[in-house]
Amino acid sequence: MTMSASDRSAVCVWTVPVRLFHWSLAASVIIAWAISETSRPLHEYAGYAAAGLILWRLAAGVVGGHYTRFSQFVRAPSAIASYVMDIFLGRERRYIGHNPAGGAMVITLLTLVGLIALTGWMQTTDTYWGVAWVESTHKFLGNVIVAFVGLHVAGVILASFRHHENLVGSMISGRKRAPSADDAA
Q1: Quick check: is 60 in a domain?
Q2: Which residues constitute the domain of residue 19?
Q3: How far is CA 100 from CA 85, 115, 174, 184, in A?
Q4: CA atoms of 120 and 112, how far apart (whole Å)
Q5: Which InterPro entries does the UniProt record give (predicted)?
Q6: In this structure, what CATH number is given to the domain that contains residue 113?
Q7: Is residue 182 part of a domain?
Q8: Is residue 1 domain-resident?
Q9: Does the pTM of the predicted model rise above 0.85?
Q10: Residue 95 forms beta bridges with which residues?
C-alpha cells in the first residue's frame, strides 16, 4: 500500500490514548447529562468514568507526549485574549496542537468535569448527602458544561473552516496537515 502525498505531509499530533480519552470523556459527559433524571446508577457510573478520565488527563498533561503536555498549550490570559481578538479580525494563526483559545477551553472543560464529578461524589457521602448547595452546584455545573461544549464545538468548526482542516477527523486519525512557515507550534 502506498501513501498519498497528503498522508506523507501529515504529522501525528494526537496519540491513541489522547484520542481515546477525548471520545470517552465526551461519551461519559453526554451519557451522564442525558440520563441524569432517569437512571441514577448509570449516571453515577458515567460520572465515575469521567472522574477517572480527568485524573488520567491530569497525569498525561504533566508526563505525556509533546502535544499532550499542559506546558505546550496553556497560555497566559493576555495571549488568549490576543488570539481571540485575532479570530474576530480574521487573522488568527494555525496551530499544530491546541491554539490559545483551544487550550483555555481544554482547561475549562477539565475543570468543569472535575467539579461536576466532585460534587456528584460528595452527594454519595454521609457528610454531604442531602446538602442543598452541593446538589444545586452539581446541577448548575451540569447545565453550564452544555454551554461550554457548544462553544468548544463551535470553535472546532470555525477553526476547521478558517484553516481548511478537518479537526474532528484529526481527533479520529491523530494526524494533521504538516506545519507551514505561517503556522505556530
Answers
A1: yes
A2: 12-177
A3: 11, 23, 20, 11
A4: 12
A5: Cyt_b561_bac/Ni-Hgenase, Di-haem_cyt_TM, Hydrogenase_cytochrome
A6: 1.20.950
A7: no
A8: no
A9: yes
A10: 184
Q: How many residues does the chain have?
A: 185
Domain-located, residue 2: no
How many domains does the chain divide into?
A: 1
Across 109-113, average pLDDT: 98
Residues 6+ apart with CB under 8 A from 45: none
Does position 160 have pLDDT exceeding 70, yes or no? yes
Return d(Cα 161, Cα 11) in angstroms, integer. Answer: 19
User: Which amino acid is present at 49?
Assistant: A
Task: Using alpha carbons, select from 128, 121, 18 the residue that is nearest to residue 70.
Answer: 18
Residue 3 in this model has a pLDDT that exceeds 50: no
pLDDT at 8: 59
